[in-house]
């Protein structure tokens, strides 16, 4: 497994296949991952030697906030959820089922220059942006202009 330029021996949670994962930038021993069968979030504090299965469900990308290993954003098809307590509890920060019309979130990215800026992309060129670390999101209407900085 390669994460943020570092190679490590991967150990999946017993009997499960990892679907998505992220490693904390400041300590690559801290990992969050989801499996492709039970769709649960698993957490490792020792570089994947051992895993703890959390009660939280997850169906897509998962990202650790760049400056806090206990805060994660993750997707549940047409919703974005946030946990600020190491995946013990969660809350929905974006649920736009009607607008997405069944299109699921495909990626979550934090800005390299400002960890308060978060992008969430869904199928069909739909893009949402947060400027407060993922507390609230705004639909970006002119995706191309926003990405290339036109009019900003």
Features:
152 residues; mainly beta; Neuraminidase; four-stranded antiparallel sheet; 2 helices
What would you note in describing this structure?
There is one protein chain. It is built from two helices and 14 strands. By secondary structure, the chain is mainly beta. It has a single domain (2-148), classed as Neuraminidase. The mean pLDDT is 83.
Net shape: globular
User: Strand percentage, roughly?
Assistant: 35-45%
Strand order of the largest sheet: 3-4-5-6
Rounded to an integer in angstroms, the radius of gyration calculated over CA atoms is 15 Å
By CATH reckoning, the class would read: Mainly Beta
Task: Tell me the number of strands.
Answer: 14
Q: Helical segment tally? A: 2
CATH fold-level label? Neuraminidase
| Largest sheet geometry | 4 strands, antiparallel
Low-confidence stretches: none
Average residue-wise pLDDT: 83
Order of helices and strands: EEEEEEEEEEHEEEEH
Full CATH superfamily name: TolB, C-terminal domain
Cα-to-Cα separation, first versus last residue: 38 Å
SSE layout and pairing:
Blueprint: E1 2-3, E2 6-7, E3 18-24, E4 27-35, E5 40-44, E6 52-57, E7 62-64, E8 72-76, E9 79-83, E10 91-95, H1 97-100, E11 105-110, E12 118-122, E13 126-130, E14 138-140, H2 143-148
């Amino acid at each position: 497994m390669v994460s943020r330029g570092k190679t490590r021996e991967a150990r999946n949670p017993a009997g499960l296949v990892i679907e998505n994962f992220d490693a904390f930038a400041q300590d690559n021993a801290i990992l969050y991952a989801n499996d492709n069968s039970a769709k649960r979030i698993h957490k490792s504090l020792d570089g994947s030697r051992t895993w703890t299965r959390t009660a939280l469900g997850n169906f897509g990308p998962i990202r650790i906030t760049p400056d806090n290993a206990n805060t994660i954003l993750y997707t549940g098809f047409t919703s974005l959820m946030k946990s600020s307590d190491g995946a013990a509890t969660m809350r929905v920060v974006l649920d736009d089922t009607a607008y997405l019309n069944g299109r699921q979130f495909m990626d979550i990215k934090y800005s390299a220059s400002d960890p308060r800026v978060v992008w969430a992309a869904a199928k069909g060129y739909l893009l949402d942006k947060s400027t407060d670390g993922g507390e609230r999101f705004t639909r970006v209407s002119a995706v191309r202009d926003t990405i290339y900085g036109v009019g900003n």
